[in-house]
Specification:
The longest helix is centred in the last third of the chain and has 22 residues, at 325-346. This protein is 46% helix and 11% strand. The protein contains 14 helices and 11 strands. By secondary structure, the chain is of the alpha/beta class. It has helices spanning 19-30, 35-39, 102-113, 124-130, 146-152, 182-193, 196-206, 230-242, 248-256, 260-271, 275-293, 298-304, 310-321, 325-346, and strands spanning 7-12, 49-55, 61-62, 68-69, 73-74, 83-86, 117-121, 138-139, 157-158, 164-166, 173-176.
Length: 349
């Protein structure tokens, strides 16, 4: 049988592109099918994917932090790749890309309608949403963009939990979570477009780890949303200091001095969550820090953040982070080990 032609794969670059993700994806996909064999002492295999950078024009430009980009080709009706990858951008958390890139959005829709498989990493999903390709579909991105999707793209079923989200049943439209989940996306692209075996050898060659835990363990559950309700802001400030109190709802109602029903309604409208859930999030965040940076037993940590019932706390923690407390501690244990070792070295021990 004749060898299959390399898969026409294009990586989209714009001035906001993160150079590390763009060039990292370029390296990984370009070496698919070749580097592992060479490492094992065999002849390099055929190139599985023809990977090129595409941009609005083929003129050189600089992306985030001044990294130079030299596109191989430009967008246009005649350019319809088999695979299009949108690596992440340096994008503000309140930027829906509504005021620019109209021609690019039109091209994305054009490619999709003609059979291109489109993969977006992190903030790249915002561009797909701005083009309307995620309307009525499940999608993910960096968890910090949840509020942006809620406000500006309400038709998108945004889910901050997974590392990868399949936005159509055929698997032609895939979105990935935050930052380094482009590793997961690259391995998925190789598994889907080339073979699972090539994805495994690529992971071995680049020492790439699959983020099976998803994004939940990394989410900061206490992000203050901008709002103008001063009573709610006072409630948030009080809870930040007194979240361990046995009855935080009664405590904050007394501290703010407005009826409980009114406070609960205004709090939900301003923050997008309930008073008790906000207090629970503060408790979980404090417990996460204790698990990350100390060797305290779980019972002690649970009591410190306001829970005498350890079993209830364990269930709540897993619901919020996707991992049990012991699993969460193991996830970040190498960082604690390095921290302790650095401190010991600095003190001469």
């Amino acid at each position: 049988m004749p060898e299959r032609a390399p898969i026409d794969t294009q990586l989209l670059a714009i001035p906001e592109s993160a150079g590390s993700a763009l060039y990292g994806m370029l390296d990984v996909l370009r070496t698919c099918g070749m580097s592992w064999r060479e490492l094992a002492g065999n002849d390099r295999g055929p190139q599985a994917m023809q990977v090129r950078i595409v941009a609005q024009t083929d003129e050189p430009f600089r992306c985030g932090y001044g990294i130079p980009i030299e596109p191989h080709l430009a967008i246009g009706p005649a350019n319809v790749p088999e695979v299009l990858v949108i690596p992440d951008f340096w994008l503000r958390l309140d930027d829906p890309l509504s005021d620019r890139y109209d021609a690019l959005k039109t091209w994305l829709v054009h490619c999709w309608s003609r059979g291109t498989s489109i993969y977006a990493a992190c903030s790249g999903s915002v561009l797909l949403a701005a083009a309307g390709l995620l309307d009525g579909r499940p999608a993910t991105s960096h968890w910090a963009y949840a509020e942006l999707f809620r406000r500006r793209f309400p038709k998108v079923a945004f889910n901050p939990s997974p590392n990868l989200c399949f936005s159509d049943h055929a698997g032609r439209l895939v979105t990935a979570g935050g930052a380094t989940t482009w590793h997961d996306l690259a391995l998925h692209i190789i598994a889907r477009q080339v073979s699972p075996g090539e994805a495994i050898t690529t992971a071995k060659f680049f020492l790439m780890k699959w983020h099976a835990e998803g994004q939940l363990p990394y989410i900061n559950r206490v992000c203050q949303r901008p709002h103008a309700d001063r009573a709610v802001r006072r409630a948030e400030d009080w809870l930040a200091k007194h979240y361990t109190t046995p009855d935080p709802v009664a405590g904050v109602v007394e501290a703010v001095g407005i009826p409980e029903r009114s406070l609960k309604r205004r709090f939900s409208q301003a923050t997008g969550t309930t008073v008790i859930a906000y207090a629970q999030n503060l408790r979980v965040e404090a417990a996460k820090q204790a698990l990350e940076m100390t060797a305290k037993p779980l019972e002690e940590i649970a009591a410190e953040v306001g829970y005498e019932n350890v079993a209830f706390f364990r269930r709540l923690f897993k619901r919020c982070t996707g991992l049990g407390p012991s699993e969460y501690r193991r996830l970040f244990e190498p960082l604690l080990t390095m921290h302790v070792a650095a401190e010991q070295a600095a003190s001469g021990r």
